[in-house]
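ok, trying the design again with the full structure, not the truncated one.
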């Protein structure tokens, strides 16, 4: 395999003997893979097709991962020769580790670099300054740096702690024409740039913005272009489980008419299915069929780039719809690639199970478990998302708490733990609010039953 992706049959052959999808105790080592594939070729009658695999849920996958991550048995291939990628930790507790074969990871990043270049997101002479986060086991900075470099760009790694004044100075000094970061980071930079005088603004010659980690709204797009001018807004979509797998550019697909983003995906690298939203509430999914092209539903991924620890029919939590590549893109993209490309329209997270704030996904189940922990003595709690300004550029996360007045745990200690849970740092603290209530009158309630709503979304 030299192209950077694998046949689906090989992926499924390994999945059949992997603990994610079978009763096998340990994943294979790199050295065992040829023997597994040879045995599968010798017994084709034992092969399973994709539809025979049930949908893979995050909680089920993570149960296996938590065991394999700490098992130091020499037969445990999960801990050998792997690239360690983690979730953002937004669901509380320790970030979830997903281990990928290190060589497969390099191949995947090389292929994604090719796609960035083939689709024109990166062009000769591009210099990209990235604000992405690194540290706390999170690796967005090295991921995006390598993708840009594989595509042919030069990269300035600013990171999230660099002062906005220094960021602007670096952009001007090095003649950078692109900035990359989470949506929230780009918005905060734009807010700073909006305070500069005309001379300073004119020295910025940005032609592209790259955002990742969270969806972007129409209001946020409008604010960014009002500050930086008419530039191309691009995106790379990915996750710890799947890696980077799709690219988007307003120069290719235009400005969306609603709050969604169209991504281009190489079908040789990722097999995508979209299922009815009701599948999230069903345990048995064998009889459920994917929805027709163009119809939104829950996105299910099968990676064709991850062989040793396969990702098969994974319910990733996004709502999306599949579309053939439009004729407009067929006319401008390299013809040798377009037969392999398809378009996916991503609408954002399934709000029934999680929400997004400052580039992190927060699972309702994990939040509920934290709030119910006996040591906190929390009686009622509520989370509110709201726009930080009328323009809707930034999102404020507000947490309201009503707890036992006689609790032995100090309010200061609990406040620190809540900020830790929601990953509040100096660079996003202004977008986080925590309020301890003296009674229940400070909660927002439903209009009918007057019940305290645990999650209130006032954005958009």
């Amino acid at each position: 395999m030299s192209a950077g992706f694998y046949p689906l049959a090989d992926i499924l052959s390994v999945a059949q003997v992997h603990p994610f999808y079978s009763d096998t105790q340990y994943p294979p080592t790199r050295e065992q893979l040829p023997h597994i594939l040879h045995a599968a070729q010798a017994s084709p009658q034992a092969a399973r097709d994709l539809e025979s695999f049930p949908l893979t849920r995050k909680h089920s996958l993570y149960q296996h991962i938590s065991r394999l991550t700490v098992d130091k048995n020499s037969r445990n291939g999960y801990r050998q020769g792997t690239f360690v990628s983690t979730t953002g930790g937004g669901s509380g507790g320790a970030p979830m580790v997903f281990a990928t074969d290190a060589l497969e990871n390099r191949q995947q990043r090389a292929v994604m670099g090719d796609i960035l270049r083939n689709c024109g997101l990166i062009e000769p002479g591009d210099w990209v300054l990235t604000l992405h986060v690194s540290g706390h086991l999170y690796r967005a900075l090295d991921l995006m740096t390598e993708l840009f470099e594989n595509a042919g760009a030069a990269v300035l790694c600013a990171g999230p702690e660099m002062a906005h004044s220094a960021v602007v100075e670096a952009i001007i000094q090095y003649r950078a024409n692109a900035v990359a970061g989470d949506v929230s980071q780009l918005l905060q930079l734009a807010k700073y740039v909006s305070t500069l005088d005309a001379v300073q603004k004119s020295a910025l010659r940005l032609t592209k913005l790259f955002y990742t980690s969270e969806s972007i709204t129409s209001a946020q797009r409008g604010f960014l272009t009002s500050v930086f001018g008419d530039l191309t807004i691009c995106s790379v979509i990915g996750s710890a489980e799947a890696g980077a797998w799709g690219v988007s550019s307003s120069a290719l697909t235009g400005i969306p008419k609603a709050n969604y983003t169209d991504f281009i995906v190489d079908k040789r690298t990722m097999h995508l299915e979209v299922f009815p939203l009701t599948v999230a509430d069903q345990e048995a999914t064998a009889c459920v069929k994917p929805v027709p092209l163009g119809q939104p539903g829950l996105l299910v991924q099968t990676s064709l780039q991850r062989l040793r620890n396969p990702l098969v029919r994974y319910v990733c939590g996004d709502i999306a719809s599949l579309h053939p590549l439009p004729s407009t893109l067929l006319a401008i993209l390299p013809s040798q690639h377009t037969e392999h490309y398809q378009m996916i329209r991503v609408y954002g997270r399934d709000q029934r199970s999680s929400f997004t704030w400052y580039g992190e996904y927060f699972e309702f189940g994990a939040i509920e478990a934290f709030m119910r922990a006996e040591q906190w003595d929390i009686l009622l709690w509520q989370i509110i998302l709201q726009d930080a300004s009328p323009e809707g550029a930034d999102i404020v996360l507000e947490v309201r708490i009503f707890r036992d007045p006689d609790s032995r745990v100090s309010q200061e200690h609990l406040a620190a733990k809540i900020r830790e849970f929601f990953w509040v740092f100096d660079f996003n603290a202004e977008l986080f609010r925590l309020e301890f209530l003296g009674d229940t009158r400070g909660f927002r309630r439903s209009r009918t039953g007057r019940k305290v709503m645990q999650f209130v979304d006032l954005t958009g």
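Keeping the full-length input from now on. The two ends are 46 Å apart (CA to CA).
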